[in-house]
Amino acid sequence: MAQIEELYNAILKGNRKIVQEQVQAAVAGGMSPQEILFESMVPAIREIGDRFSRGQAFVPEMLIGARAMQAGVQILQPLMDKAGMKSLGKVAIGTVKGDLHDIGKNLVAMMVKSAGYEVIDLGVDVPVEKFEDCVKNSNVDVLMLSALLTTTMPYMKTVVDHLKGQGLKCRILIGGAPVTQAYCNQIGADGYSPDANQALGLVEGFFQKAS
Ligand code: B12
């Protein structure tokens, strides 16, 4: 579809206006928010990351690409919300301390929310105390941790150790580009997934087991 390619290129160029126009056109053309996100927008922002790795793009390019992506996500978000639906369970999500990446976290939150779960978004750069406070006071059944940097990934272990050490019962899911199943096993988290779709599957699995 032409829109998919134009949208992809507009994110690469960081052109917010064209991103918004193309997202609206794709929606009007009958594409689902998930198709628009995962067939065009996510591959584009990943391509910017690959260019950064090859020294062909720099932090400003990543930043304007991310802003353009967010402008499109803002249009899709309300289409994925299930207004008025009874919550199937409560989930919290945050990007761990030291890490400011939030696009992947936001997509995971949107997917889980779109399936009918209540999602508390703790934001980025979240310290262990804030995770603890949320689990203790908000009756959260599943906590999701995101990290995009190899330097912030170890903080996931800090959170897992701390919450388990306190005897807190919620399930902890982890994800983000550098995270792997092996790392999940190593730190004793309850689940890992490489993308937002499978993250939703894990959340659903936990709530089914609990009921
Ligand atoms: C956009 C971007 C930025 C933007 C972030 C804007 C924002 N609002 O998020 C800005 C410019 C701010 C930025 C800054 C930096 N960045 Co940056 N960034 C990226 C980039 C290009 C895209 C990230 C992204 O949004 N991907 C798209 C989303 C959809 O994918 P995702 O996050 O992986 O999420 C999916 C899955 O991982 C999973 N998932 C994510 N979270 C969770 C959580 C759970 C629980 C589950 C189950 C699943 C899950 O589901 C998601 C959807 O399918 C990546 C490259 C890349 N390939 O990822 C580099 C990248 C992550 N950045 C990198 C670097 C080095 C930096 C900086 C240190 C650069 C610098 N010198 O300043 C800073 C660090 C700032 C900080 N303290 O956090 C490196 C990290 C290298 C490493 N090994 O650690 C990367 C990999 C680029 C590269 N190729 O080198 N960055």
Quick recap:
The protein folds into two domains: 2-80, Methyltransferase, Methionine Synthase (B12-binding Domains), Chain A, domain 1 (Orthogonal Bundle), CATH 1.10.1240.10; 90-210, Cobalamin-binding domain (Rossmann fold, 3-Layer(aba) Sandwich), CATH 3.40.50. It is 59% helix and 10% strand. The protein has helices at 2-13, 16-28, 33-53, 59-80, 103-114, 128-137, 154-165, 181-187, 196-210; strands at residues 90-95, 118-121, 142-146, 171-175, 191-192.
Share of β-strand residues = 5-15%
- CATH homologous superfamily assignment of the largest domain: Cobalamin-binding domain
Overall average pLDDT: 93
Form type: globular
Q: Which oligomerization state do the chains in this entry correspond to? A: single chain
Bound molecules: cobalamin
Major sheet size, sense and barrel closure: 5 strands, parallel
Structural class: alpha/beta
What is the number of independent domains?
2
State the end-to-end CA separation: 42 Å
CATH architecture of the largest domain: 3-Layer(aba) Sandwich
